[in-house]
Amino acid sequence: MMISPETYVKQHIKDPLDQLIKERDALIADIKELEAELFGNKKHSEEVIMPAPSVQYQMKLEYLGLLCRFICLKYNREVVHGEKIYKEDLKELGLN
């Protein structure tokens, strides 16, 4: 079962930027593997995989999109402005 993008990012709210970047890179690697399976020459597995690779692909794209928005917010607040993230900031991303 896949979780919502909001729940996925909430799991990483307290992570430092370097850990968020590693998580982003892992998502990108997963997405590339799924693309190879769905759109490329990679041989499809005969096993039944749940959720289906097409669902995994869609959800991981959603995760990546929201995670990147969160990384941008965190970088802007913490690195550029030297501030902490406020609850209002999280609400803008639907992470309240």
Number of strand segments: 0
Strand portion: under 5%
Distance between the termini: 22 Å
- In which range does the helix fraction lie? 55-70%
Whole-number tally of structural domains = 1
List keywords for this structure.
96 residues, mainly alpha
Describe this structure in words.
The protein has about 100 residues and is an all-alpha fold. It has one domain. It contains four helices and no strands. It has helices at about 5-10, 15-40, 55-80, 85-90. Helix 2 runs antiparallel to helix 3. The protein starts with a helix and ends with a helix.
Short précis:
Helices cover about 65% and strands about 0% of the residues.
Question: How would the blueprint of this fold be written?
Answer:
Blueprint: H1 5-10, H2 17-39, H3 53-80, H4 87-92
Helix pairs in contact: 2-3
